[in-house]
Amino acid sequence: MGLTCLHSRMTVTAMKDLGFREYAARLAGSANAAVDEKQGNSNADANLHAMCGFGQPEYECRKAVAKIIADGKQESADAVAASDYKLALRRVGETLHTIQDMAFHKFEPWPFTGIGDAILNAPNYMFCHLIRDLGVVSVSKTIDVDVSWRVGQQVYVGVKGFYHPSNDYFAPIPPIGGQAPEIPGFGGMFTITIGAAPGSVRVPDPYPDSRGAVEGPYSSMMSSGREDLTRAEDATADFINNVRKDVQARPANGQVPPGADMWEAFVRY
Predict the structure, then answer these.
(1) Residue 156 forms beta bridges with which residues?
(2) Is 107 helix (H, G, I), strand (E, B) or coil?
């Protein structure tokens, strides 16, 4: 599944950015990370990671994941309203795990009984899975490695190294009646990407050896990490804000303060 440390860090960062104190943010982060203790191929376990259990149809998986998220939102808001802040933070963290994994895993099947079983039976898949789940690394089939960081809403900086078995860009002109020799090309660059995450724009190309050609599932996984992390970060903040809206919409009722005061007390916990 997604890297446990990445889940925790993403959760803590988002909550602190939204005003929560360190203690509360880390409680939610720990609850998020604890979901990775369930890595089996049953529907109940796999759906927590937005993946399909062994033999589970995708449409059933999508319904189950949607219910996990809806229930998590409702239970988080109810716990805030009841001033049970530890429960609220636990449910926020647990639900965010599923939301974050949905950005990475996209309801792919998980037939394995655990990580060890997956590595033993599908090592290539798990290697590509790891590259994707790092979140900052993109690897293309032409042996391009791009490590990038998000520095603004839609701004990324990174470093990129590449090696091409044949340099199609600066190959010498072939002699008459002959063929140009293949010259390997390699190098590196500093990159600034604006408007889309690195690796997220793929240009269709009919030529199988050219850059941007239609990718197989494994190479596509390795090139989507930065894009998926961006989606997971945005979805994390969106979920916390949706819980806030639910709480703040609740009117005062007898001894219960209005929702805005409930949320403010929760953030200060």
Answers:
(1) 150, 193
(2) coil
Higher pLDDT pick, 236 / 143 = 236
What are the structure tokens assigned to 12, written together? Answer: 């803590």
Q: Hey, is 149 helix, strand or coil? A: strand
- 174 touches 190 (CB < 8 A): no
Q: What is the pLDDT of residues 231-263, one digit of tens each?
A: 999 999 999 999 999 999 887 665 556 788 899
Per DSSP, 109 falls in state B
The answer to whether the Cα torsion of 113, 130, 89, 77 is positive or negative is negative
In this structure, the number of other CB atoms found within 10 A of the CB of residue 34 comes to: 16
* The token pair that represents 211 in the structure block: 């850059």
Q: Which amino acid makes up residue 15?
A: M
Buried b / exposed e along 224-247 (16+ C-beta atoms within 10 A): bbbbbbbbbbebbeebbeebbebb
